[in-house]
């Protein structure tokens, strides 16, 4: 009954595993597309453009009249990208207000240098919706110091921008930053735009949101696969335990039957040995005599031959008298009879250590002929005997 249950259970687990694997689909593999840079150091170099026209957001794209830019790298930034979505950076910029540009609603009559040193903290909007690993919009703010139009001022900064990552290490940052002067009496607000090539190093990578979902599915699949494998192993173990139990029971039954058969044969052997001794019969003595007659010697010769054929057998020999005569005399006479019986067997080669002997006098009569009962000679003769009992086989 075990085998059909075992194989049907295995078949059910197999189809469960197949169906689960089909449900997962062939895309259940983590690829480089599922990973993203979680934290890194970042360095950038690029250009900056300053709009300090003083007309707020009027003519934001008036490149010729209001934007100031130099034709060489003028922006350096260095910072740390954190796994929680925040980036902390320090930015140094240089620019030049050109003669003829509108600055604070006044057209310059000479070139004026621009210096900026800013810090900013930005937050990646991808953290909100788990967006693309290559397109990274952000918002942020910070503080800085700017020397512009020959006026130094501390600034409150607000920034919005985009980072485009071409690989784990290289990308571009495009941003616009509003700078609000901390002291409006000395300086005005202005806009600063920047574009930088970026390089990331000291990278620590993790999974995208989609990658984390895929990993969860993979772990679910692996857990299910482990459950199936464990179930199969449990079924196999149960089958093996049942097989071993059956073998153990069969072995014990075989041992029991073998022991039973051995006991039967041993009992038969013992019975045969005891019967052989009984069949030899007792030896008998004449009245008031301990001497062995010819009939007794014939029987003792058979007993000696029996002992030679069965070297493990030990005998107990007891000798007796009839009830006539004094009890003490009868005890003495039975002792002489048993001694002569044992000595004869020893003379025939039987080891003394295999013989136990005892004279019992008139204490174990074979019939009713005691001191109070009158019996014929034939009856009294039955009591004048030596008996043989197997005590060890």
Automatic annotation (TrEMBL):
It is found in: Cell outer membrane. The keyword Coiled coil applies. SUPFAM superfamilies: OmpA-like. The keyword Cell inner membrane does not apply. One of its GO terms (cellular component) is cell outer membrane. InterPro entries: Bact_OuterMem_StrucFunc, OMP_bac, OmpA-like, OmpA-like_sf. Transmembrane segments: none annotated. Residues 365-381 have a biased composition (Basic and acidic residues). Gene3D superfamilies: 2.40.160.20, OmpA-like domain. Residues 362-381 are annotated as: Disordered. Keywords: Cell outer membrane, Coiled coil, Membrane. Residues 218-277 form a coiled coil. Residues 272-393 form the OmpA-like domain. PROSITE patterns: OMPA_2. PANTHER family: LIPOPROTEIN YIAD-RELATED, STATOR ELEMENT OF FLAGELLAR MOTOR COMPLEX. This is OmpA-like domain-containing protein. It comes from Sediminicola luteus.
